[in-house]
Design goal:
By secondary structure, the chain is α/β, with parallel strands linked by helices. It has 7 helices and 7 strands; from the N terminus they run βαβαββαβββαααα.
């Protein structure tokens, strides 16, 4: 018999169990083991989302591209050496990106002993979290997860959303933030006003050409 969760649903039927979070990597210390092509990919993904991220890279062999990144991002430290479990003593989170499956397992064991969350490249079953596809429009970020089943599908969805969302969306976010800071009244009133103004965002595609742009509505208000 399938086990049930606290809501009485079957664990087999509840779908993606991941809980989306956004980490302040500029305030955490990431230890990345591996500096080959996969390590470079992971490091690039981290820096694309947080250019002030603090990352220590541990690897016996380091691609030149990784060294070039370290010249442009002050938070990167490179230790060209063989991995030792004590390398994780400084870590808040861990990313294992070596091409040695046994070494990746050792890294995971060392992380678990220190109660650290770890991502193991291309091994969903060994991961505590995934580095998913991210859509970024200024301060807006959307994380896409396929529960580790198809990074390719996540990549395609990212392309669709990047095309569909306007490039000037960040201007709207800033205007809404400014407006929120000027609203007076109790919490319920503020929520009602913001819901009224942002209702423009939920119009159907068929109505887009006939409606006033949200940025113009904000300027009027």
């Amino acid at each position: 018999m399938a086990s049930t969760n606290t809501t009485g649903q079957s664990e087999e039927n509840t779908g993606n169990q991941l809980f989306p979070v956004f980490l302040k990597l500029n305030e955490l210390h990431t230890v990345l083991i591996g500096a080959g092509n996969v390590g470079l990919e992971k490091l690039t993904a981290i820096l694309n989302n947080s250019n002030n991220a603090k990352v220590t890279v541990v690897a016996r062999e380091v691609l030149q591209e990784v060294y070039l990144l370290s010249e442009h991002f002050v938070g990167i430290t490179i230790l060209q050496k063989t991995f030792e479990p004590t390398d994780l003593d400084i870590a808040d989170i861990v990313v294992a990106a070596t091409d040695d499956s046994e070494l990746n397992k050792q890294i995971r064991q060392a992380a678990k002993q220190r109660k650290l969350l770890i991502n193991v490249a291309d091994k969903p079953d060994l991961c505590d979290f995934y580095l998913g596809s991210v859509v970024k429009k200024g301060d807006l970020k959307l994380g896409i997860s396929t529960n580790g089943k198809s990074p390719t599908v996540a990549k395609r969805i990212k392309e669709v959303l990047n095309t569909a969302l306007p490039d000037d969306l960040d201007i709207t976010l800033q205007q809404l933030n400014d407006l929120r800071n000027t609203l007076t009244g109790d919490f319920a009133y503020k929520v009602k006003e913001l819901n009224r103004i942002t209702a423009m965002l939920s119009i159907s595609n068929d109505d887009k050409e006939q409606d006033t742009p949200l940025s113009e509505t904000l300027n009027k208000d």
